[in-house]
């Protein structure tokens, strides 16, 4: 199918709910299908909200107590050994692989269900489910290894978690994902199976997945010394590639959760929403991911690389949907990220000696928003059936989008800067074993690697 044909608007109505590819596992699908059909059998709605609040509060309190509460004797920070670096990289790769398996398996599973109508119970071992089961198994691995690192060794429980906090946090957050399943089941029983993708439990579940993913990014980047700002291809390390790959998977997931309904013509779940929500949602997701990619890797060109890979991954999926479920979705959100990301990378490349100045940050955020909205508003009007772009929609897209993009960019910058520093020892000169080529080093374990901490923010 020609690429130009994929960009043309789809005018026929798709199947009800088509394109709502939820970020759920087979267990969550089971919860939706097993929801009671009699309204009288459902628990009250407050039960769903209460369960959601209790779980979030409990996990937040536990994470604070384990990792941030004051200790009588602060845990000593030590330089990571070769074995620790190797396991950090391996766990980051597991996070990436688990995300890829779910990203392929979940849409494939929905496509097969829509084409064949196979009911639950007859599809347990078909290929899409096997990919999703493999992703679940990798999550169990993250829980087991992360918590084993925290519980092993001497000292108390909090001291154990703080010896290798990133791996311990990875285990804790992965365990939260499994603890969330009963809350999602209750929520489906409260409201029923015909729940919109952007429901509170699904958004909270997606946020927990993002927390796991960002921990994986920090693990991948911590396997090499923190570099100064440089070009994208300047000594590109496997850790950088894994980190950017995880960000690509996360961006695809959030776009699927928050924007796919708009891109299927006349999807009933979005017809009643204000039209400005679509471009603003795309803008917020893109601005946050682009700034995280840029500031975590410190590579000009990282935002563009992420946007191009996102588009390249989405186009074949649209082609398959257009072929098997005509008319299929339009290509919009994933395409709109590219020119904005290019403009952001060019801006930071031009600000060579002043990349941490407020003018650089705010100027880049405004430029990203201006380019995306300037391209998005006319493109949406031409290539999509919904939303309908009129003067009010265009005005509100700009009025709401600019401040929202500034907030998302600032948050992405802070998160990216934290990811770039997390897990790296503060000492100027630290013994690190970087002999394995996976860490981008050539020195032997007996050599010492200098950390350029003084130049960290240049």
Keywords:
disordered N terminus, 2 domains, two-stranded parallel ribbon, 15 helices, globular, two-stranded antiparallel sheet, disordered C terminus, 458 residues, mainly alpha
What can you tell me about this protein's structure?
- This protein has helices spanning 3-7, 26-33, 45-67, 82-116, 127-151, 157-163, 165-179, 181-191, 200-221, 238-263, 277-297, 302-324, 333-350, 358-383, 391-421, and strands spanning 230-231, 299-300, 429-430, 449-450.
- With 458 residues, the protein is an all-alpha fold.
- The chain has 2 domains: 26-68 and 80-223, no CATH class; 237-423.
- The longest helix is centred in the first third of the chain and has 35 residues, at 82-116.
- 43% of the residues are buried.
TL;DR?
By secondary structure, the protein is mainly α. The protein has helices at residues 3-7, 26-33, 45-67, 82-116, 127-151, 157-163, 165-179, 181-191, 200-221, 238-263, 277-297, 302-324, 333-350, 358-383, 391-421; strands spanning 230-231, 299-300, 429-430, 449-450. The longest helix has 35 residues, at 82-116.
Task: Tell me about the largest β-sheet.
Answer: 2 strands, parallel
Number of helices: 15
Specify the overall morphology.
globular
Strand elements, count? 4
Low-confidence stretches: 1-40, 427-458
- Please state how the strands of the largest beta sheet are arranged side by side: 1-2
Oligomer, anyone? single chain
The whole-angstrom Rg is 23 Å
Secondary-structure-based class equals mainly alpha
Specify the helix fraction band. Answer: 55-70%
| % residues in beta strands | under 5%
Our measurement of the CA-to-CA distance between the termini, rounded to an integer number of angstroms, reads: 46 Å
Q: What is the helix/strand order?
A: HHHHHHHHHEHHEHHHHEE
Give the tally of structural domains: 2
Overall pLDDT level: 78
